[in-house]
Amino acid sequence: MLRRFLRITALTTGLAAAQNTSIGGFVVLSAVAHDIPPAQAGLLLAAGSVICAACRLAVGAAADRGIGGSMRMVSIMLAAGAVGLLAMAHHARLTFVIGCLLAFGGAWGFPGLVHYVVGRVAGSATTRATATVQAGTSAGATVGPVIFGLVLHHAGQTVAWGSAAGVAAVAAALALWAHRTERALIGASRPGSARDTRSR
């Protein structure tokens, strides 16, 4: 069951990394294409980075207090990121800016929470579990920007960001699936519950 959880989570983070690295790599180029001056496009990237950092701190603090420290919260964040990416596919500048900030917060804010969940679920196997998930993340971060760049070049802004939104939505659905396995694993670790978990 732990291996299944790690495979699903690695696929989740791989898809998520494929689209979130594209945000950082292409947001300035896209902002300029939306008639935003280069200096303001750079400020938009900086603002998005600040929001990303704030979201990571916020979800970490919430998890320390027992609030939202699960793959369900990861799913919610990725879903919010998907909405932001979809807004970035719009031609209006204001919609693009708002979508960009939302995408940075949701689509970029999840990695620390994923590692927290993996560590909590894996227990003594945390090192190997983290390596498995990080392998998926690294693969997505490598391939994603290349594919996004090709789509952007051949199909344009709307299709590229719309496709990224679709990838983020799939990652959100996978995170929700991982949450089901996460709950089963946590239940199996409780005294007297292993038999019930195996029967499921």
From TrEMBL:
InterPro entries: MFS, MFS_trans_sf
Transmembrane segments: 40-59, 71-90, 96-118, 130-152, 158-178
Key words of the record: Membrane, Transmembrane, Transmembrane helix
A Pfam family matched in the record: MFS_1
UniProt KW RNA-binding keyword: no
Domain of life: Bacteria
Name by which UniProt lists this protein: MFS transporter
Organism, as annotated: Blastococcus brunescens
